[in-house]
Amino acid sequence: MPNPVSAILVVIVTIFIPPIGVFLIAGCGADLLINICLTCLGYFPGHIHAFYLEYIYFNRRDQARLGNTVQKRAPGVYSENIQNGGHTSYGTVQA
């Protein structure tokens, strides 16, 4: 069973400062830069983007734990960590 405390902490951090929540799940990359720009343009666009990324991340993480693989990439997500739900696959052959 996944640890819900980590998800709750990420959501609480995102409520106050959206780019930090994105950094916690995506790292430093294009998604973080996009979120910083959206937060500077308006506080709510940054929130929408951050919560979208978190939804994709936690959904993919739960699917991977159940053994389901998601073949289709999520639109507008550039981080492989989010696309894979935090799980890394080794090699080039899909299981």
From TrEMBL:
Keywords: Membrane, Transmembrane, Transmembrane helix
Chief location category: membrane
One Pfam family hit: Pmp3
GO cellular component: membrane
Stretch forming the signal peptide: none
Entry's localization field: Membrane
Similarity-based family: Belongs to the UPF0057 (PMP3) family.
Protein name: Plasma membrane proteolipid 3
Species whose genome carries this gene: Imshaugia aleurites
